[in-house]
Amino acid sequence: MTDAYAVREAVEAADREACFAVRREVFVEEQGVPQELEYDTYDTTAVHVLAVRADGLPLGTGRLLHGADALGKTGGDATVGSLGRLAVAKAARGLGVGAALVRGIEDTARERGLAAVDLHAQTHALGFYERLGYEAYGPEFPDAGIPHRSMRRVL
After folding, report:
1. In DSSP terms, which residues pair with 68 in a beta bridge?
2. Rounded CA gap, 72 and 58, in Å?
3. Which of 28, 31, 95, 118 is exposed most, by the fewest CB atoms within 10 A?
4. In terms of Cα–Cα distance, which of 89, 29, 90 is closest to 62?
5. How far is CA 106 from the centre of its chain?
6. How far apart are CA 154 and CA 142, in angstroms?
7. Phi first, then psi: what are they for 133, rounded to 5°?
């Protein structure tokens, strides 16, 4: 497998379907998250970001909620976006795809005038996000039966 990939906003229907396919592989199949919890109404208004290999194979995805959609996840602060649904296909792990997706989502947040990005990290991934400049806050909480912590990075 080549390491050559690009990160882009998923605008076309085929790109969005690729995002959903990666999420299904990682969250539904690998982690056992119920499909009805994985896909939600935010999927229609979120900005989806896709990492895709040069030959078109989707490697990873994530999404950014902003504006009214993010308020419930950011403590009501309209200047903060909410990064979520970050998933990297098993075959692409260890290539830097996750970090590239986070940076792509942060760029998207900046383009929309946001000052910070919040996320709910699975506790096993705290170190990954800390290395990217995120700081944990608040208590641990369950989401889809998986322990999480809130984290934030000022842009």
Report:
1. none
2. 30
3. 31
4. 89
5. 10
6. 25
7. 100, 10
User: How much is the pTM?
Assistant: 0.93
Tell me the torsion sign for CA atoms 7, 12, 16, 17: negative
Percent of the chain with pLDDT over 90: 91
Sheet of 58-65, strand order: 5-9, 47-53, 58-65, 80-88, 116-122, 146-154, 135-143
Q: Tell me: the pLDDT tens digits for 3-19?
A: 689 999 999 999 999 99
In the numeric block, the tokens 């995805």 are attached to 61
| C-alpha 86 chain-centroid distance | 3
Phi first, then psi: give them for residue 72, nearest 5 degrees: -70, -15
Statement: residue 1 has pLDDT above 50: no
